Amino acid sequence: MKIFISSFGTESNTFATYPAGIAVFEGGFWNEGDIAAAPVTPWAGPARLWLENAKARGWEVCESIHTFAPPAGTVSRFTYEQLRDRILDDLRNCAPVDMVLLYLHGAMVADGYEDCEADLVARVRKIVGEETKIGIELDLHAHIDQTLLDVADIIVFFKTYPHIDHNERAQDLFDLMEKTVSGEIHPEMCLFDCKTMGIFPTTPEGPMKAFMAEMVEAEGKDGILSLSLNHGFPWADVSIAGAKMLAISDGDPALASAVAQKFGRHFYRIRKVAALEFTPMDEAIEAATKSVGKPVLLADVSDQTGGGAPGDTCHMVRAFLDAGIRPATFGPIWDPAAIETCFQMGVGARSFLRIGGKSEPQSGPPLDIEAEITFLKRDCWQENDGMAEVFIGDVAVLKCQGVDIVLTSNRTNVYSPGFFLSHGITLDDKQVIGVKNLYKHTDVFADLVSKQYYVATPGVSQPDFSQLDFKNIPRPIWPFEADPLNLDGDSE
Ligand SMILES: [Zn+2]
Question: How far is the CA of 141 from the centre of ligand 1 (A)?
């Protein structure tokens, strides 16, 4: 038995202009085909696990590159084609193989390629032929249609958001692929279009936890091999956008179709209560000015780098200053140039500074302030809720009218209170804590704050989809249309 493994992905926000070029992949996760030597991260985990499983069975393993770029704008055509062709060349060099395992993202868009994963896997299929089995693991924030199903044998998506099951799903995929290659099972995949866009956390406080448990409960019995809900990635204007339910049966296409429809309709019925709720910025600022006691947390969700945004807008911190909210803190704002200015001036200096607002039209305007530099440090790292620390580059902290503002030279979100605490900022005395992130910070700040708001500021990861210029997404789709499947009046 000979298998081929590779990892290649990013999440492309087609509204963002900061591009994912080759340097962004190299600066993200990059491994030259020796995944056993990679640090244990969510990006390395699945391929490492496949390698270990295969070695334990005495199989021969060929590896190509493993690389993930942090979410950004559309991938440049040159970058995508160069990395894709590297993987395809490596595959040609080790063919024939019995099995291909690919850890992709599912929401990579490149210049000229709306669905990079379908393009890549179709080319893989051409090289390996129809007999070789192809298995793919995807993030649940993916775009998918029948094109990818037609060229793959098994697709398994993450089930959790925030994502904590990379490795469990990798093991599911490996187990199913092993049985497929041996002829024990005959997977048949079917996709149901839920005609829905949104962000759907699977954490215990929402209905998605029960939905996830029902999927797991149904797997491995009555002819169903695997179930996945692709939530979709809402900040991409692509024709295959939206949530889709995938069912894989053992040799029974009609069963896969019926089960995909059953679970897809069930998800559709809970979509409104499952979707993360957002607060308009003026309402959130109003609530923050009136808060007493523990700090209130405001998440600037529209400029979060995890959704491909640049991370340099100043709309929320400007609102803090305009409303006279203090003491407060806000971060991060991505601004390497302003940080260099701060290093030239030194801690304790006061100066007029222009920060943020540089990357794209929705980033602006920048914030012009008179501030004191209170903290400077090169080469900083951020805790990440038990996972590998995140490199955030150089850090400068500015104090302006009672607001501590954190600048970083690397694009990042706030993943932990340590982002502030390790840079000389106290939190329990603040009236308001402002962070750039969508949802991932929620649990780690829960004990520190009295209330958390997910705030719809301007930006390219804007949760108010009506503010974004969608031209290509399939219509009808919720929330643009109220009930595209015409099921809201029905009982299940
Ligand atoms: Zn995701």
Answer: 5
d(CA 306, CA 332): 13
What is the distance in A from the centroid of ligand 1 to the CA of 241? 14
Q: 157: CA distance to ligand 1 center in Å?
A: 10
CA 196 – ligand 1 centroid, Å: 16
* DSSP string covering 156-212: EE---SS---HHHHHHHHHHHHHHHHTTS--EEEEEEE--B------STTSTHHHHH
Structure tokens at 158: 């993450």
Instruction: Determine the distance separating the centroid of ligand 1 and the alpha carbon of 431, expressed in angstroms.
Output: 31
H or E segment at 297? Answer: strand 296-300
399 vs 232: CA distance, rounded Å: 39
Tell me the CA–centroid distance for residue 75 and ligand 1, in Å. 17
Phi and psi of 431, rounded to 5°? -80, -40
Task: Tell me how far apart the alpha carbons of residues 295 and 450 are, in angstroms, rounded to a whole number.
Answer: 6
CA of 231 to the centre of ligand 1 (A): 9
- The full DSSP string for 242-289 is S-EEEEEEES-HHHHHHHHHHHHHHHHHHHHHHSPP-EEHHHHHHHHH
Output the pTM of the full model: 0.94
Question: Residue 351 pairs with which residues in a beta bridge?
Answer: 371
SS (H, E, C) 165-177: CHHHHHHHHHHHH
- What token pair was written down for 246? 């995938």
Say how many Å lie between the CA of residue 140 and the centre of ligand 1.
6
| pLDDT tens figures, 440-471 | 888 899 999 999 999 999 999 999 999 999 99
Residues paired with 451 in a beta bridge: 296
Report CA(314)–ligand 1 centroid distance (Å): 25
Average pLDDT over residues 335-356: 97
What is the distance in A from the centroid of ligand 1 to the CA of 354? 33
Contact (Cβ atoms closer than 8 angstroms) between residue 467 and residue 278: no
- 3-state secondary structure (DSSP) of residue 436: coil
For residue 89, how far is its CA from the centre of ligand 1 (angstroms)? 28
Look at residues 271, 268, 245, 241 and name the one whose alpha carbon lies nearest to residue 258. 245
The per-residue pLDDT for range 380-415, each reduced to its tens digit, is 999 887 777 889 999 999 999 999 999 999 999 999
Question: 163 alpha carbon to ligand 1 midpoint, in Å?
Answer: 7
CA–centroid distance, residue 158 to ligand 1 (Å): 8
Q: Which token pair is 260? A: 């995909």
CA distance 164 to 115: 25
Residue 233 CA to ligand 1 centre (angstroms): 8
